[in-house]
Automatic annotation (TrEMBL):
Keywords tagged on the record: Membrane, Transmembrane, Transmembrane helix
One GO term describing the cellular component: membrane
Organism expressing this protein natively: Theropithecus gelada (Gelada baboon)
Protein name: Voltage-dependent calcium channel gamma-like subunit
Signal sequence interval, chain numbering: none
UniProt-listed PANTHER family: VOLTAGE-DEPENDENT CALCIUM CHANNEL GAMMA-LIKE SUBUNIT
Molecular function via GO: calcium channel activity; voltage-gated monoatomic ion channel activity
Amino acid sequence: MTAIGVQARRPLGQRQPRRSFFESFIRTLIITCVALTVVLSSVSICDGHWLLAEDRVFGLWHFCITTNLSAPMCFRDLGQAHVPGLAVGMGLVRSVGALAVVTTIFGLELLMVSQVCEDKHSRRKWVLGSILLLVSFVLSSGGLLGFVILLRNQVTLIGFTLMFWCEFTASFLFFLNAISGLHINSITHPWERPWKF
């Protein structure tokens, strides 16, 4: 009877404490904000028109010439913009930006799974998801910085389009959500002992 009693009490001792409403609300808010950020960054990269310089539009995918008399003429060959290294550089910027979105999607999945399937690994999944958001911030910021460096001679503050500012906002939200996720986890679950992976 003693062994049966111990086995019956063990699952109760291992049961995770219930989260407070405030903690659940904050975590849900972070997940929702990350999902909206993925959409914002995806739209910005798919559109790709980030800079307007006089009668030219520079984008991740096209280079366009605009005139008042006709529709814009767009070229997929970025070499026709006559900017040194633009074609190769934009390829890297596109790749880094797309990789940032993919990394965010994986991070978002880990955040959601940690909340839906609560077990002893939930905290680790949440931390890993937040770290992936930090990686997304680094990649997205690198893409933005690379774009500005490539077109440094054409860049003006009022020349950046709405799509550029969308990506800039998404990059900032990657960082904000990552830091918020790590902070809420450290508040609710202090680092009392090292984790065993």
